[in-house]
Here is the input.
Amino acid sequence: MRKIGVFVCHCGTNISSMVDIDRVIESATRLPDVACAVDYQFTCSAPGQTQIKDAIKEYNLDGVVVAACSPRMHEPTFRKTLRDAGLNPYMMEMANLREHTSWVALNRGEATAKAIDLVRMKVAKVARLRPLEEIHLPVTRRALVIGGGVAGIQAALDIADGGVDVTLVERSPSLGGHMAQYDKTFPTLDCASCILTPKMVEVASHPNITLLTYSEVEEVTGFVGAYKVKARIRARSVDLEKCNGCGTCLEVCPVRVPSEFDASLADRTAIYRPFPQAVPAAPAIDRESCIYFKTGKCRACEKVCPADAIDFEQENEIVEVQVGAIVVATGFHFFDARKYTEYGYGSYKDVISWLQFERLTNASGPTGGKLRRPSDGMEPKSIVFIHCVGSRDPSKGFPYCSRICCMATAKHAVITRSKIPDAKIYSFYIDIRAAGKGYEEFVRRAIEQEDVQFIKGRPSRIVQSDGKLLVRSEDAFLGRQIEVEADMVILTNGAAAQNDAAELAQMLGIGYDQYGFFNELHPKLRPVETNKAGIYLAGMCQGPKDIPESVAQASASASKVLGLLSRDQIAREPIIAEVDPGRCTGCMDCMEVCFFTAVEEDEFMERKIAKVLPGVCQGCGACVAQCSDGAMELRAFSDEQIHAEITALFAVEVAR
Amino acid sequence: MYSEIEETAKRWLEADKIDSFIGYSQRSDGSVKPVRITDPADVDNLYFGDGCVHNLMSFIKLNGDERIGIFLKGCDGRTMVQLVAEGELDRERFSVLGIVCPGLEEDGKPLPKCAFCRVNTPPDYDELIHPEGVEIKDEAIEDEELSSINELTRAERFKFFRHQFDKCIRCYACRDVCPLCYCRECVTEKSSPQWVEVSIKPSSNAYWNLIRAYHLAGRCVNCGECDRVCPVGIPLRVINRKLANIVENYFEYVPGMNPELTPAMLDFREDDECLDHGREGS
Here is the structure.
C-alpha cells in the first residue's frame, strides 16, 4: 500500500469559487493509498510548499498529488518541493483543477464532480509511479547563429563576448541583412549603416566568431548540448584569404544584372560586392550570370586582380561543426506587392516598394540619395504612401499587422520633406500604430511639423494618365471618395516569413505558424525558446518586429545560450521513451514517426533493434503508439499507469 | 491449367534458388488448399483457378532465412509490398511468381472482392503469368461497393456498425488470418494492463472491432480474408475499405503499391490536411 498525500489548492478563489474543495478532500480521504488530504489557499506559496514537506515527513509519504493549476505552470515548483523533502521529484502528479476544471466548467456541480474524478485518477497513477533520475548530458561550448542580419549579429556578438565560440552562417555574400539596405531608422533618424557597420566589423574581427558567408545550413542532427551541424560554403570564386578588397575586378566585369541590394533599381556586375561596406569585403562571383561560367571565355576579373585572389576552380565545401545551442535569426522578406494588381506595382515604374524607396533616399543608393522617380528621373512633387499593402488584409495578403510599416512610412514622409521641402505628401492608412518609445511623438511630428497629410482610407485603385498617377480612395473621415494626383507612389508592403522558413523549421524540428513564422515556446513567458531544447529565436523570423525589439530578442537568446553553455552538463527530464530490447523486432517504424529524430538503430544479441537518444527524445509518445510489438514505453506514462487512470475514472461511475 | 506454375516452381527448386514453393493445390473433391512444396517432384499438384481465395502471404514467416518461392495474385502481391514498406519483410528472401488475376468466381458469380478489384497484378514480381484475354487492372474504378455505406448519415453508420459488432464472438479468426495483423503481442492478449475484457459483451466487441479496423487503416489491401473467415458474417472487408477510402482521399496513399513509399500512418507531414472537416456529416 502506498502512502499518498493529496494537496488541494484554492488558487485564491480561482478554483474554490467553482469547486467545492471540502467535497474533493472528503472524496480523496476515502481513496485507498491516500494517507492525507488537505487544502490550502495557495499551495504554490512558501507556506503551501511547507505544508507538503511537513506532510511528507509526518505521514512518511511516498507519493504526492497536487490538485491545482496546469503542470505547465507549477510542476517544476512542486518537483523541487519533493526533492527538498527527500522524495524523488518524479513521484508527483498534478491534477489540473483550474485550466481543465474551474475555468471551463459551466457550474459548480460539474466542476466539483470533475475535480473529484481527476484527483481519483491521479492517485491511481501516483500509486504506480516509479522514481526517475534526471539524465545528464555533456555540453559543447560552441553556438551556431543562423542569419547575419542585425539580430544574428547581435546574438553572435553577445555570445562571443560571453567567452563562447560562435559559428555565424549567412546565406548572402555579406553580413548586414535588411538593415544594411535601409537609409535611416525611426524614430531617431540615425543612419542605418552608420550604426550597423561597426557591429559587422566587430563580428569579422572577433576572436570567438567564425564567420561563414555565402553559406547555408544544410543539416542539423543531434540534440541540446551536442547538435551536429553541416553547413555548405558556396563557391565564392574569390579567395577570402588573398583578396584585399580593392574592388578593381568590379570595374572590369562586363556583366550587368539587377542588383538585389538596390532592390532592382540599379545593376550590379557578375563579380559583386552587395554594398561598399560589405563584410567580408571580398566580392563573390555569381556563377549564373558570369560570362566565363556560361561560355568559358572572359576571366577579365582574374587578369586585373593584383592579389591573384580569383579562383574559378573553387568548389562548394561542406563543413561540420558541433554546437551546444543554436540561435535562429533568419529574418523575413517583404510581401510581394504585385499581388495587389490594382496598384500596378511592376507595371507602373513610379509605383515602388518600401525597400526601393529606402534605396532611393540612401546616400549610397543608385541616385546618391537624391529622391528622383524611376521613370524619368524627375523630382516628384506629389508623393503618396500607402500603408498595409499585404498586412491586415486576409483576402490578398496576411491578416496580421506587420508592426513596423506605420513608423517606416512616417520616417519616409519626414525624409521626403527634408529632401523636397515643397512636396505634397499624402499617407493613406487604416490605423496608425505607433506604440513604442518616441514613436507616437514621431508620427505627430510628421503630421504637425512636416505637413504630411494622413488620410484614413485604403486606396482602391491607381491609374496612370498623362504621366501622372491617380490614386483613388475613400476618405473614411469625410465619408466620400477622393482622388489624389501623384508623381510617385510608395507601397508600404508588409513583412512575410522567408519562403523557405518551413523547410528550415522542419530541418531543426521547431514549430512554425501558418504564415511560416517560427513558434516561441510560450507567447509571454518563454518568448525566445522553441519547442526544441537549445534552439532559440531572434528577430523577424519569429514574427514582425522593429530593430530595437530584434536586438533585444537577440540579446535575450544570447543570454539563454550563455546560461545553457555555462554548465558542464545539462540535466534533462527523464520522461522519455524506452525500448524493451527483448520485444523490439527492429522494424524501425518508430524512427519513421519520430518528429525529433530521437530514434536510432542499435544492436542487441546480433539483431537490429531501435534505440532512443535520451537527449533528443521529447517524450511525445508517437513511437509508443506506433510500436506494434509493445516494445516502446514512455516513462511516467506507461500503459499500466494510463490504464490505472482510466480504470479509476470509470470504476466509481458504476458505483454511483 | 497453368503449366507455367509447375514449370517455374520446378525450375526454381532445381536451381536451388528457393528452399520451398508456396502455391495452391486441388483436393480430390475439387476444393482448394494452400501447399508448401520442397521437392521438385511434387510440383504437378500446383493449381490455380476458382477456389484459390487464400492470401498465400498468410502462410509465410516474417522472420527467418528460408528462401521462399511464392505464387501471388494481385491482392496477395500488394500484401507483400506493404509488408516490405513497413519494414517487416526482407524482399530478398522471396521469389515471386505473379499472375494477372482473372478474378475468382463462386457459384458462377465473381467474389465481391474480385468484382471491385482495382489491382489484379502484383506490383512487384520476379516472373509473371499473363493469361490470354485478361487485362491488367491498376486504375481506380467507380466505388459502388461503398456507396450504400457512404449514403448513411454518421449516426446511421455508427448504428449499422454497432449492430454488426454486436454479432462478434471474438474468435479472432479475422486477426489470425490477416497477413498484415502481425503484432507479436496483440492488444487483446495483454494482461498487464488488460485493455480488452475477455467476456463477450457489446462494449468489448466494439472495442476490438474498432481497434482492428483502425490498425488496418491505410494498410489493408482488400484481400478479403477476414471477411471469408468470419463465422458470424461481419462485413469486415467493407469496414476496411471504408477506412482505406478515407486514407486515400486525405493522403493520396494506396497501400501495397510501392515498397519505397512511406506508409501513410508512418508519414507525418506539416501540410497534411486537417481531418476535422471530414468528421461531420458525410
Summary: The domain at 142-232+316-330+504-571 of chain A is CATH 3.50.50.60 (FAD/NAD(P)-binding domain).
